[in-house]
């Protein structure tokens, strides 16, 4: 029973920490969320499927459109 309560408590702490981080960020946006930023995930240097950002670009192309 102690293990279950400890697990639930730690999960609640993690979820509340993520919620606070989203709440504290402007418009709930996180920086560097494109997979093209990671050389481990994008070994071929392809553009991001979501926004079209290339690995050598700094800003997401969706930000410039909006």
End-to-end separation in angstroms reads: 50 Å
- List the helices and strands in order: HH
Structural class: mainly alpha
Please tally the β strands and state the result: 0
**Strand content range:** under 5%
Q: Low-confidence runs (pLDDT<50, min 5 residues)?
A: none
DSSP helical segment count: 2
Largest sheet: none
Round the mean pLDDT to the nearest integer and report it. Answer: 76
Structural shape: elongated
- Percent helix: 40-55%
Instruction: Please give the radius of gyration in angstroms.
Output: 17 Å
Commentary on this structure:
The chain is mainly alpha-helical and 66 residues long. Helices cover 42% and strands 0% of the residues. The chain is built from two helices and no strands. It is elongated, with a radius of gyration of 17 Å. The chain starts with a helix and ends with a helix. The relative contact order is 0.09. The model has no long low-confidence stretch (mean pLDDT 76).
């Amino acid at each position: 029973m102690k293990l279950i309560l400890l697990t639930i408590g730690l999960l609640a702490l993690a979820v509340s920490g993520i919620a606070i981080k989203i709440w504290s960020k402007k418009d709930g946006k996180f920086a560097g969320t494109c997979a093209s930023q990671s050389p481990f995930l994008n070994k071929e240097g392809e553009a991001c499927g979501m926004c079209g950002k290339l690995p050598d670009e700094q800003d997401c192309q969706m930000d410039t459109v909006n």
